[in-house]
Every structure is written in structure tokens, then in C-alpha cells.
Specification:
The protein is of the alpha+beta class. Helix 9 packs across helix 10. The protein binds protoporphyrin IX containing FE. Protoporphyrin IX containing FE binds next to helix 11 and helix 16.
């Protein structure tokens, strides 16, 4: 790996334009050097702080609580009175923890406690034999071939969001994250239960999710806090109430579906597949309670993440109009006038590259944690059992010793030798190895499809003075939302129907 230059640290903080290279005004060629417009990056912490001060900074925002040296370090150790944490940016270590010996680095008990009220014994927080059983049932539902079946539902969600945005597309600023959140939840409901988010139970669940996220916005990251294991996890009354409401609504959907399956009247969607797939080793299907746990994580993991990635991708296109025009032209060419087929997805190359690059710069899950179970030696240091092992897509994806021009938006980078190598070794928006996100192929179809549909329908423009500052909540969101202006493009050919 070559050492990439330490670039534009100050300009990068505020997403300021650096007109260093000549701006291309003619036809955009992705092989030509493009002007540098650095996307926003949060300011790093300056200097050393006490544990208590770190704790306070962390609670405010985990990204800006970290020092800038983590963008260059192969490993960083945080010693606390209760345990030590090791952030691993060395690709060999990431590989070891996620791919080579994942069972020796299970999910941390701290995460389990934090998420239990909502997720019960869901696959996201389970370990060992239970997790293996759950994965054997869930994986087949997300296999490549199944995507073909759920594709028309994704398309319908895309049509619905375009319709929702049309009356708002008059050039005035719109907060786009709320809309990407809406469409991502719509995709989950349509693909899982064949109902749109406007369905009575679905919309009640969506509202309860929003409230739950406000009540406990960093649940997934709480395990990074330097607290001892015995420290009680306080779930506010609001957290427990919203979790119970969500689970009650999911129970209604799941029980209704169980009856449809029993009457052989169930649609061929993800819920149907998951509820009727027996574990090939034990022959057992999920019971209702187990299914509620899994649906809760699909809603949580599959909705916030996709919403965040889509919102950042739209912002990046708004600030890089040359790429936006490429994606729009590609969509215009690829979507046939009458019917849209799943095979269309392979034509959306620019859109995929943009979505991939958006998740490099703004990985929806910025960090995740594992726990060492046996004594380890990482880069010459002893790691004791019980230590927290932190994998940080946020730092790995912007690592200055791995990526060339790490803070620049350049979807074409994945065609370069450096981009290809980093894609293999230093790109983990979906994690990797045995516990890789089962929804990754689903998300890589959904994201580029929605991006293309939106950019085909509207031109997105940045709003002066409104630079979104990334912050880690449950996912990487903008501190005060992402504001964009939408201008309608020609929608004449926009009444297509999707086919598998
Ligand atoms: C852009 C979209 C998405 C991103 C960036 C993403 C990212 C991730 C990451 C990083 C993990 C590992 C977390 C950890 O180990 O702590 C994960 C796990 C998971 N994701 Fe996703 N995800 C996305 C979409 C989805 C979708 C659409 C679904 C399902 C509908 C889904 C379901 C899950 C589940 C069930 C797990 C737990 C897997 C296990 O522990 O075995 N995700 N995701």
C-alpha cells in the first residue's frame, strides 16, 4: 500500500470547495482529473482528554470525540479502569477478527443488553449455536435469486417516493433524510410483508420506530463506552414503552401472516420465505416470538442504514453535478419505456459506484464491536480476554495510509488499482466474514435503484449555507438534517411497470 497524502484537513471539515484543479465545464469524463470539492467531515478532537471528558464528548458524538491520528493509525488502544479497547485499522487484524476467527470474537454482552428491549434474542445480538440456527433460516431469504422476487416491490417504493416528492420539487429547500427514511421503511414493509408503509399497522410501527430512535439514538454504540460490564443499562421508560409498542405491532403482522400461511394464501415475500424455511439441521422453523425478534432487526438494521446511505448519496450528487448528470443519463437510458426488469440493475454502473463511494465516506454503521474471548497478541501488544475490539468503517474507509485521496468523493476510484485493493481489504460498510450483513445484496440493489429513480425524476441541488455535519447516532446522520433543492426533470416516460 502506498501512503496517501494527508489532505485538506481544514477545508474538509466544512466541505469547503478547493478550486485547486481546473474545473471541467465541458462533457464530464470520469477518467479526467476533476475539481476537488471535499465532502464534509467532522472536526477531530484536539489533544489528550481525561476519561470523563472523553465520556462526555463520546455521548455528544462519537466521531468528533476521536483524535485525528486514528485516520493514520494501524491500531489504537484505549485503556480504562474496567477494560481495554483496541480499534483495529490494520487490514490484517480486521481480516483476523471478522473473517479468519469470527467465533473467537463474538458480539459483546454490552450490545446485547443495550438492544434487548427491542430486539429480544434477534440474530443481530445472538451468539454461538442460536446465532448459527438463525442464520441458516435467514440467509436463504436474501440469496441473490430471491432479490429478483422482491425487485418489483422496491420499484413500487421508488415510484411512490417520486410521487411524494413531486409537489415539493419547486426549488425550495427540502430536508431529504426524512424522505429517504420514509422510502427505506416503505421498501422493508413492501418486501417483507407486501404492504406499503401507509398500511395502518405499518405506519404505526414507523412512527413508533422514530420515537424509539429519539429515545435511544446510540444504542448500538453504547458498548463502546468505557463502563464496566456490571454497570446497569438504564432503559428509560420511554425506550421500554416504544420497544413494547413496536413489538406489539410486529406481532400483529406476524400472527396475521402465520394465518395466511396456514391457509396457503400468503404472498411470495421475505416474511413468507423466512417463516416457512426450516433450519436444515434441526428441521425447526421460527416460532412467532422468534420471528418478532428477527422482524424487529430487519426494520431497525434495514431501514436506518439504507436511509442514511441514500441521503448522503443524494447530497454528494447535489455537490457533484457532473456525477449527477452521469447517473441521470444512465437511468434515462437503462429504464425502458414500458417495463423495468431486474436485469436493468446491472446497467446502473455509475449509480452503484456512487452509492458505494457514498458508503465509503459515510458508512451507515460507523463502528461496531466484538469481544476478545482468549488471550491475543495484536501488533505486538497483549490483548486480554474481555477486551473490546472495535472495527471502525469510519476510520478504515478514510485511512490515509490505505486510500489515495481518502477525503475526496470519487466514485471512479474503484476502477483504479488502489481502489480495487482497498475494496478488498479496507472497505467494510456491511462488515465481512461469517457475520456479514445478510441484507448487503438487498441494500446494493435498493440503494442504486432508488438513487437512479430519484435522480432521473429530479435534479438535486445543494442549499447555500447548509453544509451537513456528519454525526454518529444509530447510523451516520447529519447533525441538522440534509437540505436539498429539487427541480423536476422531464417525467414523460415515468409510468413504467416493474417485472422480475
Ligand atoms: C445500506 C444498508 C445496510 C448497511 C450499511 C448495513 C450494515 C450492516 C453491518 C455493518 C452489520 C454488522 C454489524 C455488527 O456486526 O455489529 C449488519 C448486520 C446485519 N444487517 Fe445490515 N446493513 C444494511 C442493510 C440491511 C438490510 C436491508 C437488512 C435486512 C432487511 C439488514 C439486516 C442485517 C442483519 C439481520 C444483521 C445481523 C447479522 C448477524 O449478526 O449475523 N441490513 N448490517
Amino acid at each position: 500500500m502506498t501512503r496517501g497524502p494527508v489532505l485538506h484537513s481544514i477545508a474538509g471539515l466544512f466541505g469547503l470547495e478547493r478550486p485547486k484543479r481546473k474545473r471541467a465545464t465541458h462533457v464530464f469524463d470520469i477518467n479526467e482529473p476533476q475539481p476537488i470539492r471535499l465532502p464534509p467531515k467532522p472536526a477531530s478532537r484536539v489533544g489528550k482528554v481525561s476519561l470523563w471528558a472523553y465520556f462526555k464528548l463520546f455521548k455528544k458524538d462519537i466521531l468528533s470525540a476521536q483524535p485525528a491520528r486514528l485516520y493514520r493509525a494501524w491500531m489504537a488502544e484505549l485503556r480504562t479502569p474496567f477494560f481495554n479497547s483496541y480499534m483495529c485499522n490494520d487490514p490484517d487484524l480486521v481480516n483476523l477478527v471478522l473473517k479468519e476467527r469470527p467465533m473467537d470474537f463474538p458480539k459483546s454482552e454490552r450490545i446485547r443488553t443495550g438492544l434487548k428491549p427491542l430486539l429480544g434474542e434477534s440474530i443481530f445480538i445472538s451468539n454461538g449455536a442460536l446465532w448459527e440456527h438463525q442464520r441458516r433460516i435467514i440467509d436463504p431469504a436474501f440469496e441473490g435469486g430471491r432479490l429478483r422476487t422482491v425487485f418489483p416491490a422496491m420499484w413500487d417504493s421508488g415510484m411512490a417516493v417520486v410521487e411524494r416528492l413531486q409537489p415539493l420539487a419547486d426549488g425550495s429547500p427540502i430536508e431529504i433524510e426524512s424522505h429517504t427514511s420514509h422510502v427505506a421503511m416503505d421498501v422493508i414493509f413492501r418486501t417483507l410483508f407486501s404492504v406499503p408503509v401507509e398500511n395502518e399497522i405499518a405506519s404505526a410501527a414507523f412512527s413508533a420506530f422514530r420515537e424509539h430512535q429519539q429515545a435511544q439514538p446510540v444504542a448500538n454504540l453504547l458498548s463502546l463506552l468505557p463502563l464496566p460490564k456490571w454497570f446497569p443499562h438504564f432503559h428509560s421508560r420511554r425506550t421500554r414503552r416504544t420497544a413494547a409498542t413496536i413489538r406489539g405491532l410486529i406481532a400483529q403482522l406476524t400472527e396475521a401472516r402465520a394465518q395466511e400461511i396456514a391457509a396457503s394464501k400468503a404472498p411470495d415475500d421475505l416474511a413468507n420465505k423466512i417463516m416457512t424455511t426450516p433450519d436444515p439441521q434441526t428441521g425447526k422453523c421460527f416460532d412467532t416470538e422468534e420471528m418478532i425478534d428477527q422482524v424487529a432487526i430487519f426494520f431497525l438494521a434495514g431501514h436506518e442504514t439504507s436511509a442514511a446511505a441514500l441521503a448522503w448519496a443524494l447530497y454528494l450528487l447535489a455537490t457533484h453535478p457532473d456525477w449527477q448528470e452521469l447517473v441521470a443519463a444512465e437511468a434515462q437510458k437503462s429504464f425502458e419505456p414500458e417495463k423495468i426488469y431486474f436485469s436493468t440493475m446491472s446497467k446502473l454502473r455509475h449509480s452503484r459506484a456512487v452509492f458505494r463511494e457514498a458508503m465509503r465516506l459515510y458508512p451507515p454503521v460507523p463502528m461496531f464491536v466484538r469481544e476478545a474471548t482468549c488471550p491475543e497478541r495484536f501488533r505486538g501488544r497483549d490483548v486480554a480476554p474481555g477486551a473490546q475490539v472495535i472495527l471502525s468503517p469510519w476510520h478504515l474507509h478514510r485511512h490515509e495510509r490505505l486510500w489515495e485521496r481518502p477525503d475526496e468523493f470519487d466514485p471512479a476510484r474503484f476502477e483504479t488499482p488502489n481502489g480495487k485493493e482497498c475494496l478488498r481489504n479496507a472497505y467494510i460498510p456491511f462488515s465481512a466474514g461469517a457475520r456479514v450483513c445478510p441484507g448487503s445484496a438487498f441494500a446494493m440493489a435498493e440503494g442504486p435503484l432508488l438513487l437512479s429513480m430519484l435522480v432521473r425524476a429530479f435534479r438535486f441541488e445543494a442549499v447555500e449555507g447548509k453544509v451537513p455535519i456528519p454525526e454518529a447516532h444509530l447510523t451516520v446522520r447529519a447533525r441538522d438534517g440534509i437540505y436539498l433543492r429539487l427541480i423536476p426533470r422531464d417525467l414523460d416516460a415515468f409510468s413504467n411497470k416493474a417485472e422480475q
